Amino acid sequence: MWSSVVSEVILALDVPSREDALHLVDAIPEVRWVKLGPVLLTRTGMGLVGELVERDLQVFLDLKWHDIPNTVAGAVAAAADLGVAMATVHTLGGPAMMTAAAQAAGPVSLVGVTVLTSHTPAEWALTLGRVDQPLGGEVTRLAVLGREAGLDGVVCSPREIESVRAVLGEGCPIVTPGIRREGDEAGDQARVATPAAAAAAGASHLVVGRPVVLASEPRAAFRTIMEEARCGH
């Protein structure tokens, strides 16, 4: 069991509008971290980042940049100017891209996306055009590649937390989506775990969206998840 500080719970703002996003965070004063993804930002524009930063929230910008090194470095630098606390790049972009991003990051903590939590082994093999590879080994390989290129941490599913923690050490951020409470539907996530299990395995940040956003009482749902995460330590 990982015994570091209590895992942070990041609220994924998987809502349709700026107004919905701000209403949600204002209704849950316990929220310290929020995740912004491409759907909401495409609708609202990047001005939402500033509004959340003004509320003293830590913004996790999850755009999974995967482009040529100069372009990704420029995007990371722009995120730093906006006050973003953490951002994602895709490890499949390669070492040169990740190194360029890390050099441009400044105060932004960069975490590498490895294998999406929606991927199955068969789909991953089809995507890469090779014989099935165990997803756990692929995640660990890409996590090490990212760390060697200068990234601060990694994004992985709950199933790979322990193996990634073993190779990257205790000081490395491990951000884990696919968090579901007992009885929650997995949705389009293929690899999921409870907050307590993910925290116990070694995740530093737990990303939670639908179990809170779709709850009849979002604040109560968020607080329950925070308590469950604490039980994992």
In what order do the strands lie side by side in the largest sheet? 1-2-3-4-5-6-7-8
CATH fold type of the domain at 16-172: TIM Barrel
Q: Per DSSP, what share of the residues sits in E-state strands of 2 or more residues?
A: 15-25%
Can you name the CATH architecture of the domain at 16-172? Alpha-Beta Barrel
Total beta strand runs: 8
Q: Could you say which structural class the secondary elements and strand pairing correspond to? A: alpha/beta
H/E element sequence: EHEHHEHEHEHHEHEHEHH
User: What is the first-to-last residue Cα distance?
Assistant: 7 Å
Q: Would you tell me the overall average pLDDT?
A: 91
The biggest beta sheet is recorded as: 8 strands, parallel, barrel
- CATH homologous superfamily identity of the domain at 16-172: Aldolase class I
Helix fraction, binned, reads 40-55%
Kindly summarize this structure in a few lines:
With 233 residues, this protein is of the alpha/beta class. The chain has eleven helices and eight strands. It is globular, with a radius of gyration of 17 Å.
